Amino acid sequence: MDDLYQQALLDLYKNPLNKKPLSDFTIRQEENNPLCGEQVELFVKFDEHDRVTDVGWESEGCSISQVGASLLTDYIKNKTREELKTITSDEVIKMTGLNLNPARLRCLLLCYTALQKILTT
Questions:
Q1: Would you kindly state where each structural domain of the chain is located, as residue ranges?
Q2: Domain 3-119 classified CATH 3.90.1010.10?
């Protein structure tokens, strides 16, 4: 992987996007990975047209899970619930450009898993 890209991911870990709890949210979902002790809490606020107007997350976890949460939450801003349903795990993986083993993929996709549960409620 390109050193510049690695540095960008490290910067994202140190300065995460949307890492904040929301007090005014439509729905929240907690997800955890018992294999490594990571957990994420995802907050999503939808408007009357089912469009994401705000998103936040809190997490205890590794750099991979936090980078995944940052990138995903930034990506879903202003999307409708229907648009969110079309996002695939492969898209989230491509956002990072990382080639990860299955255990690390679970870390990366922790926030995505929480989002999927939100969309089924």
A1: 3-119
A2: yes
* Cβ–Cβ < 8 Å for 73, 57: yes
Amino acid identity at 38: E
The number of beta carbons lying within 10 Å of the beta carbon of residue 40 is 25
List 60's β-bridge partners, or say none: 39
pTM for the complete prediction? 0.91
How confident is the prediction along the chain (121 residues), in pLDDT tens digits per residue? 567 557 777 888 889 999 999 999 999 999 998 888 889 999 999 999 999 999 999 998 888 899 999 999 999 999 999 999 999 999 999 988 888 888 888 999 999 999 999 999 7
Token pair for residue 12? 């994202």
Q: How far apart are CA 24 and CA 55, in angstroms?
A: 10
